[in-house]
């Protein structure tokens, strides 16, 4: 008799997701549908955490309608569980790393969050982001040319590794005043900090080393800016003191690291996920080929359909109830934007990719309320430019494998590779075509 394997329990299923089991994170949307059944609020005892999946509840948590704080890695039951799993000699490293991350704008609340956000927002105005279009297009064209050269030399173009992985970090290091020659080093540090989400012994050690190295690097960079008076607008805006409101040296390092990580990892996932979705839904790709003016709006549907950022942990500061489920002070609350973006009460036929969907911009991938992502406009522009370039230059492009392997964390699922037959190249846009686009 062939032995049978029983289906995992709900707690085991949630545990596999947050443990970044490759098979579980590869396509979590059917699982999210099960989680949204009923109240859509689940107690995960293995975490422990309370998982929130309905659109309205996720939005309400983000809007601050419940007594919740952001810093769930330093406080609450998630942090307590992580400490309990670490050997005693790692506790000092845990507190050192997490205390540094407490300087992140995203980990702060109230007046302190507002102060840090005002400083960062100086460089993320619509006008400032709009001026980057030309440089983003130039970087995109350079990377596409590199892919074509790779193909000419007998290799295979990989839209994920050759374009999606490389473009966002090039854009961000330009904004931060980091030499392009250092971008691989910066990316390695960013990757190490990103792995901290698993809160294990190895990731803590690597994050600690990366933060120390990055702190030293930013210190030298800032010293150079101050000595020469030459710095890009974003760096100049963060260094400036207006009405005596400025950043300490550690706050500056934290801001640099947060912008680098937030502006590269999530946008990389947006580009990879979006290209895969369009290739799997050829009718939608063909729509954009026929009318590239649709691309700008299509980016939000790609973000909704396969979120580049799946969840955010929070900590309850008081007892309350959500979806009929009690939450106690100190408990971790995980809001799952990836599940909320597929809520049928908000999005008609949510599992269907529709680049002309009327309310596609209502997705929650960039969060909502006081912690709405400052880099959202930049991510949208990068998506617009990359997908516009691909549909115009390579209308016959086809994936060589549309069942990719995923890595990274459950929060930031990362496609590893997208080998692609680009097909004939129609060539770069003429300047007047670009202006019209």
Care to describe what's here?
The protein is built from 20 helices and twelve strands. By secondary structure, it is of the alpha+beta class. The protein has a single domain, classed as Cytochrome p450 (Orthogonal Bundle), CATH 1.10.630. Strand 10 and strand 11 form a beta hairpin. It starts with 9 loop residues before the first helix and ends with a helix. The model has no long low-confidence stretch (mean pLDDT 88).
Strand count: 12
Name given to the CATH homologous superfamily:
Cytochrome P450
**What oligomerization state is this entry in?**
single chain
The structural class is alpha+beta
Radius of gyration: 22 Å
- Residue share in helices? 40-55%
Q: Largest beta sheet: what is the strand line-up? A: 1-2-8-5-3
Average predicted local confidence, pLDDT: 88
CATH architect. name: Orthogonal Bundle
Beta-strand share of residues? 5-15%
Number of domains: 1
CATH class label: Mainly Alpha
Please give the count of helices.
20
